[in-house]
Specification:
The protein is α+β, with helices and mostly antiparallel strands. Helices cover 44% and strands 14% of the residues. Strands 1-3-2 form a three-stranded antiparallel sheet. It is globular, with a radius of gyration of 13 Å.
Length: 73
């Protein structure tokens, strides 16, 4: 099976989240990342497996969009 290496922006587009969410997740160790010199790349299958193993799916990112925001009430 051939691996496809995705950039932060490409992975964000596939998971339909912002690149900032992807960066935050790999810095916290929530998704696996491979480093090539100063570049980071992601294997989509490994990312999906990691999210499922943590009990999270792509919806994990979607639920964090409102995190840290407060309502005006």
């Amino acid at each position: 099976m051939e691996q496809t290496w995705l950039t932060v922006d490409e992975l964000a587009a596939v998971l339909k989240v912002s690149p900032k969410s992807i960066r935050r997740a790999y810095r916290k160790g929530e998704i696996p990342v491979d480093r090539f010199c100063r570049f980071v790349r992601f294997d989509l299958e490994r990312v999906k497996e990691a999210l499922k193993a943590r009990g999270n799916d792509v919806t994990f990112f979607e639920s964090r969009k409102d995190e840290g925001r407060r309502s005006a009430t």
